[in-house]
Amino acid sequence: MPSKLTRPASRHPLPARPAAFGLSSLHTAHIAGLSAEKALASLNSSFDGLSKSEAGRRQREYGPNRVEEVRRKALGLRFAREFTHFFALILWFAAALAFLAEHLDPGQGMGQLGVAIIGVILINGIFSFWQEYRAERALEALRELLPQQVKLLRDGQVEEAGAESLVPGDVVLLEEGDRVPADCRLIESFGLRVNTATISGESLPAARHAEPDRNETPLTARNLVLAGTTVVSGQARAVVFATGMHTEFGKIAHLTQTTREATSPLQREIARLSRLVAALASGLGVAFFLIGQAIGLPFWDNFMFAIGIIVANVPEGLLPTVTLSLAMATQRMARRNALVRHLPAVETLGSTTVICSDKTGTLTQNRMTVKRIYADGRFVALEPEGVAAPAGESIAWLLRAAAVCHNVTFGSRNGKAEFLGDPMEIALVEWARCAGWGAEGSRKIAEIPFDSERKRMSIVQQDDIRRTLYCKGALESLLAVCDTIQHDGRVLPLDASARRRLLAAQDEMATAGLRVLAFAYRHLASGEEGREERLTLCGIAGLEDPPRPEVAAAIERCRSAGIKVVMVTGDHPVTAVAIAREIGLVRGEAPVVLRGDALPKMTRAQLQLALDAPEILFARVTAEQKMLIVQALQSKGEIVAVTGDGVNDAPALKTADIGIAMGIAGTDVAKEAADMILLDDNFASIVSAVEEGRAVFQNLRKFLTYILTSNIPELVPYLAFVLFKIPLPLTVIQILAVDLGTDMLPALALGAEPPHSGLMQEPPRPRSERLLHGPLLLRAYVWLGVMEAAIALSVFFHVLEEGGWRYGRMLERHDPLYLQATAACLGAIVLAQVVNVFLCRHPSQSAFCSGVLANPLLLWGIALEAGIIVLITYTPWGNEMFGTAPLQADVWLYMIPFVCAMGAAEEARKWFCRRFMAD
Ligand code: ATP
What we know:
Elements: H1 22-33, H2 36-42, H3 52-62, H4 75-81, H5 86-104, H6 110-143, E1 149-154, E2 157-162, E3 171-175, E4 183-195, H7 197-200, E5 206-207, E6 224-225, E7 230-242, H8 248-255, H9 265-294, H10 299-313, H11 318-335, E8 338-340, H12 345-350, E9 354-357, E10 369-375, E11 378-380, H13 393-404, E12 409-413, E13 416-420, H14 423-434, E14 442-451, E15 456-463, E16 467-473, H15 475-479, E17 482-487, E18 490-493, H16 496-511, E19 515-524, E20 535-544, H17 551-560, E21 564-568, H18 573-582, E22 592-595, H19 604-610, E23 616-619, H20 623-635, E24 640-644, H21 650-655, E25 658-662, H22 668-673, E26 676-678, H23 683-709, H24 711-724, H25 732-742, H26 744-751, H27 774-802, H28 816-839, H29 856-874, H30 876-882, H31 889-916
Parallel strand pairs: 2-12, 9-21, 9-24, 17-20, 21-23, 22-23, 24-25, 25-26
Antiparallel strand pairs: 1-2, 1-3, 3-7, 4-5, 4-6, 4-7, 8-26, 10-11, 10-20, 12-13, 14-15, 15-16, 16-19, 17-18, 19-20
Helix pairs in contact: 5-6, 5-10, 6-11, 9-10, 10-25, 11-23, 11-26, 13-14, 16-18, 17-23, 19-20, 23-26, 23-27, 24-27, 26-29, 27-28, 27-31, 28-29, 28-31, 29-30
Transmembrane segments: 83-101, 113-130, 276-297, 303-327, 776-797, 817-840, 852-875, 887-905
GO molecular function: ATP binding; ATP hydrolysis activity; ATPase-coupled monoatomic cation transmembrane transporter activity; P-type ion transporter activity
Membrane topology: Multi-pass membrane protein
């Protein structure tokens, strides 16, 4: 029951607390045991809060109200993890084998190989760690884009400010959905219930009030609300008594390790892929070793080569590329107003097949104006600006109700004076004010808060003479609690025909896309409790909330991207359809419109079948019913993104594959439950985010195609050496130079590609589709890889033949001709990979379609690649280390037609795919 709870000071002295509670517990118990007035006085504060200057002084003394981020794992531990994952373990194993070989048979270069492999593990581990650390910091920085806002009183004025600015003694206003920003003592409350799960683990909401409570601990004291807990319902005014690390939450944060994060589909896919590729690499290594043994190659040469093959085939760059890809996508998403809370959510977003979207604020602007009034049995013309209305008893009541029945406060946001609260209520308050009505001369003494189940709210207002209950809400909801109606200055029974007329008027307004709200009141007898019954209806108002201009195009993009958009709104079905038509969501004559109350009566199968309708929308839906819709869609195998803003939306946001909270209109509770937050509440931003999510998956495929391609020109020369008894065209250390040197940065750059233009013209990726699928393997291994191998071998033989070599002659390891030929083979692979990086930017679109400057990292990658190959071929150190010799310019010129031919062949394949294989 709502009540205003301020009590006289307690006359009982505070009982001493056991020492085990420590000083701060004593303090909290102290403040809980005091009356509200004394509690305020003990903090040198008042009902109207602190002065700005005092708040500033305290801020300097107590510091910002911030709980230091709990490091998920000690940094050292996370660093160690980079050297112990699956790929790293294989490499460690390979290095150990190399050292063992060196030990058993010194002088074969195995020790050098072991050192090289360890170098690779270290460079890779440090790079991955740095990459992940940066991504995490960037995510943290993004989160700071959306600081928690609180309503507080300074100098008696309501102000909206960042939660960090709170100091002990500040008076804050709390309402449904707020995360409590600091430890507070309530001084006034209306039906307040809080969820303390974050601190006590208790999941049921607990009632809180402002009465003194002397016998409880800080966790259970019924007049304390603690930082980190959330307001489930009601409102309150409270004084802050502990901030930052001094709050109970701050103390726990010191101790706790956050829970283990669930693995995302992408993480599972990467793990699967890692195992697959590692098995492949090891299998190849063993196979090559056995072949070598069978044809009688020297054991240690053979052994060294097997290890080289394993190392070359492990895609060391995969893990940092995944992180980079996701991190770059989150940055781009943030620029497009979508803030991702967990990295893996990015990719899930890319596979979204259905978006369930709210209407108000997401598809519409949430900028409301009163457009039409229906009272006294007729529509009343409003003045052209749509604000003032002519006088009349019914309209006077309607305006009075609009002026008082709300939770709007006047205060300042970012230093600008304005109304703070729900835009619809602000529209009503402004309308009433323009007509000369305000809440002066009376005060609110109780409230029955709005909830989407009842679809109405009431406020009991006390003036000099009497108490009146004012109620506003959906017409159906008010018709259930009204028995009379204001009509031309008289109060008449609300009979069936009056009800019919009201419903018809509602339909007329709703057809025009207006949001319809009814108003009612009742005078209360003295001492009577405010109940929503026997009310007198005074009229209905139609509010316009225009669609967001960019939404129609975004819906069209979803259509071409094969993503279904389902409107799920609490509003009236007719209004919902009218708006849906306006934004192009509904085009057909007869869309399926399901009302929320029908859902619990349907079986899961019925609901799933209904969801097959091409155009379907849900109206008058409560948060619980929204959850049913999400679950039904998921049972159909859909990947569901759902939007939400209220406290009750949290379960649906958590259940959905991607929960999306509103950054502006959303409550803290919804934001915490969500995977993504929309900074501008705009539907169009969801669609942009989906595009970025899709790009991540594509980029990982580009990366894989690129690195797998170069495995073939690394393996084929060895096979040729074994089978045709030619000098070995590419040595193990050269293979490592490609895989761990020249290929690395261009491959990484492919992971950072921006989305390509046709991405939203493709259907969503089926859930079962793997990252590494048949077409990718064929393209990399059998097509691009084979071409690269052919180029590398042609160039190798060209140099040999120019130098007078004839088939059958074996060359010494240090023969200058051999050194040149093997350098040429290596150079050809690197040059072919430079071309390949452009080819890999899209599986079917021409390389010339993607602007080079769109991805600067790519150019850096190529520059580094060129730098490395120059070092390897033209410096004595490079020659010594990698067994090469400088190449003449004509060797490079000889390669050019080959790599151009490879580019042309791939372009022709792409053209063929586009021409003949498009759906
Ligand atoms: P959406 O779910 O698309 O955001 P909505 O805002 O209409 O739509 P709810 O917030 O669940 O959904 O509101 C449902 C209905 O309750 C509204 O259509 C309106 O009739 C009524 N209503 C909404 N807000 C208030 C309020 N502050 N006071 C009284 N009635 C309200």
